[in-house]
Design a protein that fits this description.
alpha/beta; eight-stranded parallel sheet; two-stranded antiparallel ribbon; 12 helices
Length: 339
């Protein structure tokens, strides 16, 4: 496995990240202790060092088990966890982005992980209540205390991330170096604002649900799933057509559909994308890891782009139509290295 510089930082992370939301069975699915340990060991043996968890995952079990698994070589691994989601459902200060919950949540995560520091702390989701300045100051204090090394932001509108990083740069505060989003062949809407923003600010992008909740493996083309029924959008005719195309390309090149779908996220855009692999079985993870042994051809990338294309909407589509008015007859005469 190769390693990537994580966004606008010098941190080295593996080209794939292991998501550990499935470590634990408290939510009625997932992997038990032994299966979770085997998946961790498989990822580590493949050269993976980048691990992602959160305070809420399996009611804290994910962090506890991950802390045990990394204990023998803690400094080797890059451990990312998150704060924002509730630890007590009935207490308003046990959730959210505010300073009180930030400090409390991080201390609890440090105890569960049994580690003195967190390599990467994600703001898990935007609460639309806490001022950006309050969040940045709290994160800066944690970095200065050595309890957190780097910060990232997840599931947040692009304009808020841009505002936060601009303020951080002006005030010489730690800025977000990573962006975590849902992104796949069946969820390309981040291409409208989030991905261009991430590229402009040199943020590493770590997509979750790269397999479209399993749709892109092709396993739902012949059957319905109880979990899948919860999201009718995932069962749309367009998404079935995308899945069929993924399966066809996989058969053509001798790969699995999952490997094709993951590699599209890695290769589909000219920026740093590090997919988060989520699995509940060692066999699933082993198959996913094999995606690093090949790349999709330009022809297959173009084919997947076409079948999964979306409308970018306003102002992007309008500006594309207005190019003749913006540039006159000069567009083809201008070499734009930023394009």
């Amino acid at each position: 496995m190769r390693y990537k510089l994580f966004g606008r930082s010098g941190l080295r992370v593996s080209e794939l990240c292991l998501g550990t939301m499935s470590f634990g069975t408290e939510w009625g699915w997932g992997a038990d202790y032994e299966a979770s340990k085997k998946m961790f060991e498989l990822f580590a043996e493949a050269g993976g060092n980048f691990l992602d968890t959160a305070n809420r995952y399996t009611e804290g079990t994910s962090e506890k088990w991950l802390g045990e698994f990394i204990a023998a070589d803690r400094d080797h691994f890059v451990v990312a966890t998150k704060y924002t989601l509730f630890d007590r459902k009935d207490d308003p200060n046990f959730s959210g982005n505010h300073r009180k919950n930030l400090m409390r949540s991080v201390e609890a995560s440090l105890q569960r992980l049994n580690t003195p520091y967190i390599d990467l702390l994600w703001v898990h989701a935007w609460d639309f209540m806490t001022p950006v300045e309050e969040i940045l100051r709290g994160l800066e204090d944690l970095v200065r205390m050595g309890k957190v090394h780097y910060i990232g932001v997840s599931d947040t509108p692009a304009w808020i991330v841009a505002q936060a990083n601009t303020i951080a740069e002006l005030r010489n505060q730690p800025a977000f170096v990573g962006l975590q989003i849902e992104y796949s062949l069946v969820e390309r809407t981040p291409e409208r604002e989030l991905l261009p923003m991430a590229k402009a600010f040199d943020l590493a992008v770590t997509p979750w649900a790269a397999l479209g909740s399993g749709v892109l493996t092709g396993k739902y083309l012949q059957q319905e799933s109880g979990r899948l029924k919860e999201d009718s959008l995932k069962r749309s005719e367009k998404n079935k057509h995308i899945a069929r195309t993924v399966v066809a390309i996989a058969e053509e090149i001798g790969a699995s559909p999952a490997q094709v779908a993951i590699n599209w996220t890695r290769q589909g855009r000219q920026q740093l994308v590090i997919p988060i692999l989520g699995a509940s079985k060692t066999s699933q993870l082993a198959d996913n890891l094999n995606c690093i042994h090949f790349e999709l051809s330009a022809k297959h990338i173009a084919q997947l782009n076409e079948v999964s294309s979306i409308e970018l909407g306003f102002p992007h589509d309008f500006l594309k139509r207005a190019q003749a008015h913006i540039y006159g007859d000069n567009l083809e005469r201008i070499d734009n290295h930023r394009q």
